[in-house]
Design a protein that fits this description.
single chain; alpha+beta; three-stranded antiparallel beta sheet; 5 helices; 9 strands
């Protein structure tokens, strides 16, 4: 069995298990909105996955997202011991924390501000910022795959920006109202800064 077959076999098993236990950002969205309002941005492998799916570059998804990573835009650390049925792993409040419930986990990092793109209702960290973070902290082969995917995503995002009309200062969206010739409406794909 070659590497590709083995990978697909384990990816299939993982996805079946994920269906049983839940997983991915969709299940966390309501929880994050409840605790953080609109002040959170998705980052990490789940954000990369959404970018790749949006740009139909699924073949670059050569890694399986583990947990969900978010940036919460606020100046102070989060002091919550619990978020929903998830308990904070660290005993002291820190800038970056992990919350877990035995089956699943998510990481929360607080920042004063961050740029993002909005795709299909998700605020995704700017891929160039994610790329800098991964390049500064390469830990394993999976990170190298994410770096490769992010470089491709950056090219796609840049090409969309170059093809679009300049954004007016009064508009918070990325396209014209009602969409444009690429099929993106301002509420489907927008960029912003907290």
């Amino acid at each position: 069995m070659d590497f590709q077959e083995k990978y697909l076999k384990y990816k299939t098993k993982y996805l079946e298990l994920k269906k049983l236990t839940g997983g991915g950002v969709k299940e966390f969205t309501e929880l994050f909105n409840l605790y953080f309002g609109n002040n959170w941005i998705l980052t990490g492998s789940e954000a990369i996955k959404i970018y790749l799916e949006h740009f139909q570059r699924g073949k670059l998804l050569t890694f399986i997202p583990g947990d969900v990573d978010i940036i919460v835009v606020q100046p102070n650390v989060i002091t919550n011991q619990r978020i929903g049925n998830f308990t904070r792993k660290q005993s002291q409040p820190e800038k970056s924390m992990t919350f877990e419930n035995g089956l699943k986990s998510f990481d929360v990092t607080t920042e004063n501000g961050s740029s993002y793109y909005e795709i299909n209702g998700y605020r995704l960290m700017d891929p160039s910022v994610m790329l800098m973070n991964y390049e500064d902290n390469i830990r394993n082969v999976t990170d190298e795959h994410k770096i490769r995917a992010l470089r491709e995503i950056i090219k796609l995002v840049e090409s969309l920006e170059k093809k679009r009309l300049p954004q007016s200062e009064s508009s918070s969206g990325f396209g014209r109202e009602g969409g444009d010739k690429w099929g993106f409406s301002s509420n489907l794909f927008s960029s912003g800064m907290f």
